[in-house]
Specification:
Length: about 60
């Protein structure tokens, strides 16, 4: 999934958050983290995390995240 991000034109902050989200995806393809906690941990607004999560959810394989 990280390699797919390299093919998408997004800003550095969105890329950073999306990479963090991808690292949080478990072996079964589930994202179980709290987006509010991620926003706090990364020092970004919640909307930025929500946007990055939607981006990750649209990557392959379908249904991940």
């Amino acid at each position: 999934m990280i390699s797919q991000l390299g093919e998408i034109k997004i800003d550095k902050l969105s890329r950073k958050v999306a990479e963090y989200i991808i690292e949080c995806i478990d072996d079964n393809g589930y994202f179980r983290e709290c987006i509010q906690e991620i926003a706090i941990a990364l020092g970004v607004m919640l909307k930025c995390v929500e946007k990055a999560l939607l981006l990750v959810q649209n990557l392959d394989p379908a249904g991940v995240g």
